[in-house]
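Q: What residues go here?
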């Protein structure tokens, strides 16, 4: 029996789909009503149960992933598919559908029905692709998408939440148009769950075959099915991974089909203003800031020059996790810069293909634009704050925040002129503000910046020299720009913490107990003194029960040899490093993917590069009665 939702073949006697949980018996093909098992006619519309569904609309343009996947994403997937096949990936699964689509489309002309459906599906897909997710299935009136596979992303849960929020917002705007034009009410519901999948194969048409581990897919489908129209529901696993980035509301334990016990369910309400790991960490409480006195002194010197009217550009370059963002945070919040207008934005890993994304976020913050604001409200906020002498900047800014009036002459300009006016408008806004009060503008993560935002920065760098403006930027070593020969530009390189500073950080968090000295040495060794990796390792130790107590007074809750410590390599790939001493194997590890951890059993997938080949191993450890972890299988 084929599931009408995900098209998985199930046993003839099945009542629910064993892939997505869809009920298989008694579902009316016309209106979707769930009837009792054995019913002959639908109790809602009278249609014979088991009858063929209504005539389908014309063939959709969404029949193959190759047809609807953006070119830049398709190229990434095809380039890396050989390395991906057979890999176990951490993912977040998204299900979204148009609630009540059978009733909505039942009496419509097939062409009209297809037009309406396609418009909804397009908005769903645009949201998924914006955050580099992949739509793996299109199921008539909905989609199933993956974040984290086949394109691997550490922040897959955050991306999925953002995509869900964007598609709700986009479909809601479309629904308002339909309501006014045709009196039709359209709402979608979205479900999210995080877990693991094993990528089996990726076809040349981009279709991905995978095997879900546990209830990864099932629970995402269930979240969608219990969601009210217009809402997004997620499991605790997804919410934990997106902590600090989205506002959630617990709905408490909810009965879920296929589970013996209720599951705690959360509604994803909105995105928080957080856009970086540091902002998320600040919401939880930052650790003590240590070291970096030389860099702070250079920042203060540049600040003094900018305060005197000689604008400055300061670049902070360093590998991930070394503390670039934290240094700027401490400078902005602990110096005379606190009296300046501080504007902050940054590029994100999914934003390279989205023109002006950091600029748009900056403008929304500057003009206090909320997600609930309609176009008219946004126009009032912008016109009310922009200096009348910059009236020509208003339309380009409105266009960036998607609030440009339909009859604006700006829409009729050719692309090169629109671009030129946009670059000029943004830079003039910043410069004008700097003449009213000094401005500290922070733009982070330029290694991910899109070309249009780069052009805005280049324009600002040209205009900064005679303004009370300090532009601070961060980037990784691979990023390149053309500002090196500017007198107003300073480059600061930042490295991992020296041993003394790393020890000070650890003492401030753990305390001064002599019993913790072996752990401190191990943490510094494993993380190389990288402050972010140190903090993440400490946080993981507390959350997994390796440490007990409170900040400044922790103690080991179990023997050091039984503790697994997380850290990351210099380019952001997750490493799960074991502190277990064993002589049986000696691997030069490039990646270690955590699989599962129970009280007395831990599984790891270890991958190394040997002779140009990528070799994968499953390693299983068990803890004996003495609490010592031993190798069981390799």
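A:
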């Amino acid at each position: 029996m084929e599931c009408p939702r995900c098209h998985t073949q199930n046993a003839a006697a099945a009542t629910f789909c064993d892939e997505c949980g869809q009920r298989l018996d008694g579902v009316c093909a016309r209106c979707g009503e769930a009837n009792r098992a054995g019913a002959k006619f639908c109790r809602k519309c009278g249609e014979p149960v088991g009858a063929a569904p209504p005539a389908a609309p014309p063939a959709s343009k969404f029949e193959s992933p190759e047809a609807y996947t953006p070119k830049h994403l398709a190229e990434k997937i095809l380039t890396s598919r050989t390395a991906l096949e057979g890999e176990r990936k951490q993912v977040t699964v998204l299900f979204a559908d148009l609630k009540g689509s059978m009733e909505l489309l039942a009496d419509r002309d097939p062409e009209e029905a297809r037009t309406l459906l396609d418009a909804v599906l397009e908005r769903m897909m645009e949201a998924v692709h914006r955050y580099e997710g992949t739509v793996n299935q299109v199921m008539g009136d909905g989609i199933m998408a993956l974040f984290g596979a086949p394109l691997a992303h550490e922040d897959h849960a955050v991306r999925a939440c953002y995509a869900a929020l964007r598609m709700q917002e986009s479909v809601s705007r479309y629904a308002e148009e339909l309501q006014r034009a045709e009196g039709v009410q359209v709402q979608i519901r979205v479900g999210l769950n995080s877990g693991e999948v094993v990528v089996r194969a990726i076809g040349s048409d981009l279709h991905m075959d995978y095997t879900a581990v546990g209830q990864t897919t099932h629970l995402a489908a269930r979240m969608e099915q219990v969601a009210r129209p217009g809402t997004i529901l997620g499991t605790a696993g997804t919410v934990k991974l997106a902590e600090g980035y989205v506002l959630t509301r617990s709905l408490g334990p909810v009965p879920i089909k296929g589970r013996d016990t209720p599951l705690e369910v959360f509604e994803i309400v909105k995105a928080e203003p957080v856009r970086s790991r540091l902002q998320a960490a600040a919401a939880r409480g930052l650790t003590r800031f240590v070291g970096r006195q030389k860099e702070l002194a250079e920042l203060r010197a540049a600040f003094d020059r900018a305060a005197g009217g000689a604008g400055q550009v300061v670049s902070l370059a360093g590998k991930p996790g070394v503390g670039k963002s934290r240094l700027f945070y401490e400078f902005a919040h602990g110096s005379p810069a606190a009296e300046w207008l501080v504007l902050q934005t940054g590029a994100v890993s999914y934003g390279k293909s989205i023109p002006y994304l950091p600029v748009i976020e900056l403008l929304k913050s500057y003009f206090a634009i909320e997600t609930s604001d309609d176009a008219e409200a946004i126009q009032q906020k912008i016109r009310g704050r922009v200096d009348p002498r910059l009236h020509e900047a208003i339309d380009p800014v409105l266009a960036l925040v998607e609030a440009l009036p339909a009859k604006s002459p700006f829409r009729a300009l050719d692309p090169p002129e629109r671009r030129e006016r946009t670059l000029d408008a943004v830079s003039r806004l910043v410069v004008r503000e700097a003449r009213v009060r000094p401005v500290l503008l922070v733009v982070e993560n330029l290694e991910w910046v899109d070309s249009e935002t780069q052009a805005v920065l280049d324009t600002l760098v040209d205009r900064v020299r005679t303004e009370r403006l300090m532009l601070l930027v961060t980037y990784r070593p691979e990023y390149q720009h053309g500002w090196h020969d500017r007198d107003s530009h300073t480059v600061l390189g930042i490295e991992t913490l020296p041993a003394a500073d790393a020890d000070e950080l650890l003492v401030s968090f753990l305390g001064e107990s002599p019993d913790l000295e072996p752990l401190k040495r191990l943490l510094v060794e494993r993380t190389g003194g990288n402050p972010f990796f140190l903090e993440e390792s400490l946080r993981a130790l507390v959350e997994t029960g390796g440490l007990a107590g409170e900040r400044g007074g922790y103690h080991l809750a179990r023997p050091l040899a039984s503790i697994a410590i997380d850290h990351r390599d210099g380019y952001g790939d997750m490493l799960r490093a074991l502190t277990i001493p064993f002589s049986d194997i000696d691997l030069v590890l490039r990646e270690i993917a955590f699989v599962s951890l129970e009280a007395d059993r831990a599984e790891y997938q270890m991958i190394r590069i040997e002779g140009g080949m990528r070799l994968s191993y499953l390693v299983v450890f068990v803890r004996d009665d003495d609490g010592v972890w031993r190798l069981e299988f390799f």
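A: Context that may help when evaluating the design: The CA atoms of residues 161 and 268 lie 7 Å apart. The two ends are 40 Å apart (CA to CA).
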